[in-house]
């Protein structure tokens, strides 16, 4: 393995820790001598929860950003090209001063934290840092005001209720919950929380049973803040995933716990309510809950697929993936960019 290939292999290895919808990890890396190509793994799609593959693309975008950060932290320049098939190509450039080493170090420590958040509230300085990280990826971050929380809560509750009655969706979520350890994916019960009243409801991964964390009524996210990831451009889900990754890694560095909430973007009508709530003509991609857990210590890590399943060496003539696009006017690769 050449030194360049080793840099790309390390990046793909760290990218396995990226967040993904239901921890499906729906990506494949194909690594050559100087480049790494990212493609979606359509065998891990969610036809009921994510029929348009939007959240699959967002997940792949998070993995793309993780990989880019890992390369830059190793002291290499990298060019990012986004497209449709492949979704992205990373091309190594010459050696450079290591950058984003703090973000790279946070990759294996980041967790989706579904525990209750206490009364301490993330300050405006932290929100400003998160906004800056998101803006570097071409997106915006809109904090939800306190007076807007009732609308956010009502819309989330209604979206969850409607989703529970969508044919096949509940069984699909159950399929990806508490899977056998050897699968290396899905949502372990140990990382979920018992369904209870919160300021804004969260997805119940195990209806009728207890989750891994018990939540008291006295600590129901009283200090949590909620932010909406949005863009001026529709259907730029891959870039939205990169912005989510930047937000989560920056929050981890700042000691803030996060849990992405996708319920309001999984169907058109709740997404339109979210658009109304943020008061913009932009396009919302995700809600993220921020705060400080009542419990000490980190939550359990979610499982990860073996590297041999997600990373391949050499390129194949993969066929295009209908429906998996990045809202690009060009059918192949575009938008070369040296940023993470």
TrEMBL record:
Region (Disordered): 296-340
Originating organism: Actinoplanes campanulatus
Superkingdom of source: Bacteria
InterPro entries, A to Z: Nitroreductase-like, Nitroreductase/BluB
Protein's recorded name: Nitroreductase
GO MF assignments: oxidoreductase activity
Taxonomic lineage from the root: Bacteria, Bacillati, Actinomycetota, Actinomycetes, Micromonosporales
């Amino acid at each position: 393995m050449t030194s360049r290939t080793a840099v790309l292999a390390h990046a793909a290895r760290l990218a396995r820790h990226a967040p993904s919808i239901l921890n499906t990890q729906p990506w494949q890396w194909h690594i050559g001598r100087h480049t790494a190509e990212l493609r979606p793994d359509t065998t891990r799609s969610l036809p009921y929860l994510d029929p348009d593959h939007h959240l699959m693309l967002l997940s792949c975008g998070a993995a793309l950003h993780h990989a880019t950060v890992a390369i830059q932290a190793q002291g290499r320049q990298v060019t990012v090209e986004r497209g449709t098939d492949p979704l992205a190509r990373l091309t190594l450039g010459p050696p450079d001063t290591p950058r984003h080493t703090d973000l790279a170090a946070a990759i294996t420590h980041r967790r989706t934290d579904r525990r209750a958040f206490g009364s301490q509230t993330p300050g405006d300085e932290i929100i400003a840092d998160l906004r800056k990280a998101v803006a570097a990826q071409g997106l915006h971050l809109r904090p939800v005001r306190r007076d807007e929380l009732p609308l956010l809560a009502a819309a989330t509750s209604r979206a969850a209720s409607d989703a529970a009655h969508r044919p096949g969706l509940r069984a699909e979520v159950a399929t990806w919950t508490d899977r056998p350890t050897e699968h290396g994916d899905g949502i372990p019960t140990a990382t979920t929380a018992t369904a209870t009243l919160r300021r804004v409801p969260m997805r119940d991964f195990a209806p009728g049973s207890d989750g891994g964390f018990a939540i008291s009524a006295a600590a129901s996210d009283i200090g949590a803040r909620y932010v909406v990831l949005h863009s001026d451009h529709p259907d730029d889900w891959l870039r939205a995933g990169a912005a989510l990754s930047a937000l989560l890694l920056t929050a981890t560095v700042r000691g803030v716990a996060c849990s992405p909430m996708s319920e309001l973007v999984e169907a058109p009508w709740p997404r339109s309510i979210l658009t109304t709530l943020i008061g913009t003509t932009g396009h919302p991609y995700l809600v993220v809950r921020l705060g400080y857990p009542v419990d000490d210590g980190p939550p359990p890590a979610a499982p990860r697929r073996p590297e041999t399943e997600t990373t391949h060496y050499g390129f194949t003539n993969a066929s295009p993936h209908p429906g998996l696009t990045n809202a690009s006017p060009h059918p192949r690769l575009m938008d070369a960019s040296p940023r993470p």
